[in-house]
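Lab notes, practical 5.
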Amino acid sequence: MTTPEFTSNRDNFCYRHPDRQSFVLCQRCMRTICPECQTQGPVGVICPECLKAQRKAETSGQRRARRSWGGGPVAIARSGRPVVTLGIILITSIISLLQMVPTIGPAIEGSLLFAPLYVYAGVPGLPFEPWRLLTTALVHGGFIHLALNMLALWMLGQSLEPIIGRGRYLAMYAISALGGSVAVALIADPRTATVGASGAVFGLMAALLIIGRHIGANVTGILVVLGINFVLSFTLRGIAWEAHLGGAVVGAIVAFVYTRTRKREQRSLQTVLLIAVSVVLIVVALFVPPLIHLS
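Output from the prediction step:
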């Protein structure tokens, strides 16, 4: 590409470094930029001037979140589509909708729902299937139950996932779901079967409250929503309030861990603490409920 026509066309060279050939355009202003001037965005790359303009357009809460959670240029790329949230919604919706098909639905629900009896390890005559502590979040008690949970998940995920990152967000969701099931195992009747992602959703709500408070955002709205949902959990019949309570408590604990280990050099400590929380929950689920309900 050394023809006179090519070299005379300045669109083939970086607008900030006219001597550097490039074929990459800024996704916002569409000017050519060389690798040194490129910052990865949600889709494509952006130039330094557009990055500066994007930073200026941020709210004070967004700036605090970016600084608190490792916000350099890479943070812009992480703040794109909530991919993990969309993935969870897609997988959960497919399984829950299949659950509503009369020919296969009962088998799907029966193999994924949770009841405390399934974690009674070593008790003769009782099935031991601890994986149900998590799989119960994939099935729901009807279309309205599914729709409400997925709507809440979408609304929460759009705020939380870009702030804390995809890996942390997925870990928070899974550990909160685990916490909800553990609370059911500890408090509810051993024969009570539960389904739904409500425990995980309540965990995300509590986490958004903790993290929002930590970065100085206005958390009044989420506090009101969380309070209303807890009131409904305890007053309406047929709702597993134990899962909501357990998910919220564990989600708050995970969020607290994140706020205290957000520095790059604390990532190993953060991982160890998350593993410790998960191990404690599993140990409690496997050993404490039989002592409570069979004593």
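Observations recorded by the TA: The radius of gyration is 24 Å. The first strand starts at residue 39 and ends at 40.
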